[in-house]
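Question:
When you can, review this sequence-structure pair and walk me through the tokens.
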Amino acid sequence: MEILAVSAELFPLVKTGGLADVAASLPKALMAFNIRVRTLVPGYPEVLDALADRTVVRSYDDLFGAAATLLSGTACGLELLVLDAPDFFARRGNPYMDQECRNYDDNWKRFAAFSRVACDIALGAVVHWKPDIVHAHDWHSALSLVYLKYSNAAHVPRVMTIHNLAFQGQFPARHFAELSLPEEAFSVDCLEYYGDLGYLKAGLMTAHLITVVSPTYAREIMSPAGGMGLEGVLNARHDDVVGIVNGIDMDVWDPSRDPYLDHCYSFATFQYRAQNRAKLLKSFGLPFTRRPVFASVNRLTWQKGMDILADVVDEIARRGGLLIVHGQGDAVIEDQFRDAARRYPQHIGVKIGYEERVAHLLHGGADAMLVPSRFEPCGLTQLYALRYGCVPIVSRTGGLSETVIDANDAALHARAATGIQFTPIDSDGLRQALRRAFALFRNHRAFDQLRRQAMKADCSWQRSAQQYAELYDRLLRHQPARTTQRTREAAALRLPHSRRRSILANP
């Protein structure tokens, strides 16, 4: 089976959130199911610098007013198609915002061009290759499904994945005339969204199937509280919405051979983790302590609940604990943590920005990872924490509630607990969770059992990748024109040996 994935981010080249990690790790996991993924990404400088074995696939003299070239090559162990359009993507820094954190005025055009090229690929722009399915990720690529619907490739199955419904790609309606779409596309059944253009909304309306990055989040976004204005669209399509929890790249996040850790460790050699803890404290200029070391690697935003965490730093310091925060985001929240570090220099460490090395050291050295999100589609930080035996303390929402088993009495007795959940999602809720964590930490035996149980959790893509494989198969079975011998062979290879002969002999 051949899949065209369309993503605006790709780890480790361009990353602002979990989208980049998923775009890089899911294709690798799907290889085990005989599914080949080629990923279309924008030609940011970092992507072009890493692209190997490049060949020119197609040239554009006028792609929404810009010259562009479609390249094929490899990077990070992935097969890539790269849209090299300097006028749109030769911008250092954030893919969507300038250095003053203002959205680029031409985002509507940049990602419309990107999506248009995805449609061209489905139409045959790549010689001797056409995808069986086009899989778009988030609003940046959502128009690819719209262009497909109104093209000669309308029969190609279309999948839309929501990574975060808060980001929708909404633009003034005046730009519609420049999108080269038929007038009927600007309607309530497609692009029109409260009088404007809604890129994500249009993707949801034109996809054959919609995936959401956790079953709980899939339910939450059906409500006015979580639907961000799109709950009506999602409820109308509820039969086509599937929640699939994200996995993580078990090679990138592996404490037994992590290049960012001076002291690697495994479940069997967990004692070496203490050396990472000591190095972590030293690197942040904090004193050695036998009290718990909390960490948070997050965007410093309202959604991530980081203002809630800033409100409870006194609780951590008063009890003798330490807190290390690494991330960037809202200037007000950044200043809150800087102020906390000035007030409690022996208890609070802060590093504004994002470095992969620091993130790995925090997961490999801290005792607990704080994820107080107000809403969280899936979350990856808590999965990394589980993998590294860093006890996750999470709000009870979205994928956080599905991937962390709360350390209540029954779960602790059954040796099933892997972390701490809290609700309500406010300062009082988090403060109570911290008190539970301090109490558990004092019981060294119980806390050691908790983090060892966390390390046993299955954070891989295996189960979720199988769900995607089954979803793709289902889509192709419902597309009679595409159900070829090649499709049956691909499906058969994902079945036990005893059933392969049957499916191949009886098409």
User: Anything to note?
Assistant: Confidence is low (pLDDT under 50) at residues 480-507. Residues 107-123 form the longest helix (17 residues). The chain has two domains: 2-247+463-505, 270-456. The chain has 21 helices and 18 strands.
